[in-house]
Write a structure and sequence with these properties.
The chain is mainly α and 419 residues long. The protein has 18 helices and two strands.
Length: 419
């Protein structure tokens, strides 16, 4: 090969590399193994920039005057103290899908009020989630709750400043680091896990991880639906603190479980959560809604689920929904094409929209206006909500699986190697 030919090839390769980097910067999608015809894609990790905050609802809360008897019964069941007037905008938005209310609210109320964590620790975790997700309604609600739990105004602002801000008790700084790692890496580092275990038993540790995860899910959903802070709540996300999430690089997936599943029948994730029976009882309705009660067509549900597992790089989630739980191929889904993403040639326009929905929720904790228009053109309001909830749920299920080190089981399928 002549020197001129070598130079031309190097120049062509360098130009391709620059173009790939420009495309990644523009779209937020990183192209891996990009020299092949069908490039494997991975979405940029969340937290690089502040998520978009809507100033008006995309899905308006159901007005009290329009509640059905079933909706009124749900409010009485889940509003604080069973008082109709205390239903917040989040709950009143979820009333568009009564089944979703029964799916999400038992876990929300458990983690907000009944877990093993102290009120102070709960509110620190949730406020940091609100900051990471840029969720005004979560911040407004939980700043008020934090004050009731004894946090000062300065401490609440310091949550936004992050775990490295001066003044934190070392363990409380660890709680904020847990949230940041859960949000950006969908996992928990060994150092943070050990620091938690110095003060927490297994029940507290699971409650802490699940509080971070479930409120990340709510933050993503509330952002996408445009849920607004309730009237009478004055606190807002600080505007004089720079948005910054600093975490170490994500560590390799665990090869030994941190939590050993209980003995018995069933898949490992359920038997791992069963280590904490009280939490498991409240977690179950959320998962039953997502995988069984929701009216999303199975193909759409499994496409959303598998893409969420791919984005978070949770191989156990991927394996179960390719295999025994989701049976992706039975629904006409090719797992390799799901890994390739929306650029794969097999997808219909609406299936591409579903993939964009997952990717944007993962990277941006919201859905862009363009994708929202396409999503709502193809689904009614309850199904749109179910699609967002499914993508958000399996993003945080991935976090739980990776944090607890849930291992693949015999016969499970690994991530594909995409040509």
């Amino acid at each position: 090969m002549s020197g001129r030919t070598k130079h031309a090839l190097v120049t062509h390769a360098s130009t391709q590399h620059v173009l790939m980097k420009m495309l990644a910067a523009a779209t937020g999608v990183l192209l891996l193994n990009a020299g092949t015809a069908a490039a494997q894609t991975s979405v940029e990790a969340p937290g690089a920039k502040r998520p978009m905050m809507l100033t008006k609802p995309r899905i308006a809360p159901v007005p009290q005057a329009e509640w059905t008897e079933a909706q009124r019964a749900l409010v009485a069941k889940y509003a604080p103290g069973g008082e109709i007037g205390k239903a917040d905008n989040g709950l009143r938005t979820l009333l568009h899908s009564p089944d979703m209310v029964d799916g999400l609210m038992p876990y929300t109320n458990y983690l907000s009020n009944e877990s093993t964590l102290t009120p102070r620790h709960r509110e620190l975790l949730i406020l940091r989630v609100a900051w990471d997700c840029a969720s005004q309604p979560l911040w407004a609600t939980h700043a008020a709750r934090a004050k009731s739990a004894g946090l000062s105004a300065a401490e609440i602002k310091r949550v936004a400043e992050g775990p490295d801000a001066k003044g934190w008790d070392p363990f409380e700084a660890t709680l904020l680091r847990l949230v940041d790692q859960a949000y950006r890496n969908s996992s928990v580092s060994e150092a943070t896990w050990k620091a938690l275990s110095a003060n927490y038993d297994m029940f507290h540790m699971v409650d802490a991880v699940e509080t971070a995860g479930h409120f990340i899910m709510l933050g993503m959903m509330y952002n996408a639906f445009g849920v607004q802070p309730d009237e009478g709540l004055a606190d807002r996300l600080p505007t004089d603190v720079a948005y910054k999430i600093s975490v170490p690089p994500r560590e390799p997936a665990l090869t030994v479980a941190r939590l050993t599943p209980v003995e018995g029948r069933g898949i490992s994730v359920n038997r791992t959560i069963a280590r904490h029976p009280k939490l498991s009882e409240k977690w179950g309705p959320r998962q039953r809604f997502i995988v069984g009660v929701s009216k999303l067509p199975p193909k759409q549900r499994e496409l959303l689920t598998l893409r969420a597992g791919w984005d978070a790089q949770s191989e156990y989630e991927w394996a179960k929904h390719v295999g025994s739980v989701g049976r992706a191929r039975d629904h006409g889904l090719d797992p390799v094409k799901i890994a390739e993403g929306a650029t794969a040639s097999v997808w219909s326009p609406f299936e591409k929209t579903l993939i964009h929905t997952v990717d944007e929720l993962y990277r941006d904790s919201n859905v862009s206006d363009a994708t929202w228009r396409e999503l709502t053109a193809g689904l009614d309001t309850p199904l749109t909500m179910a699609a967002v909830a499914t993508a958000s749920d399996f993003r945080v299920i991935s976090l739980s699986l990776l944090a607890y080190g849930v291992q693949l089981e015999e016969g499970d399928e690994h991530f594909p190697k995409v040509k």
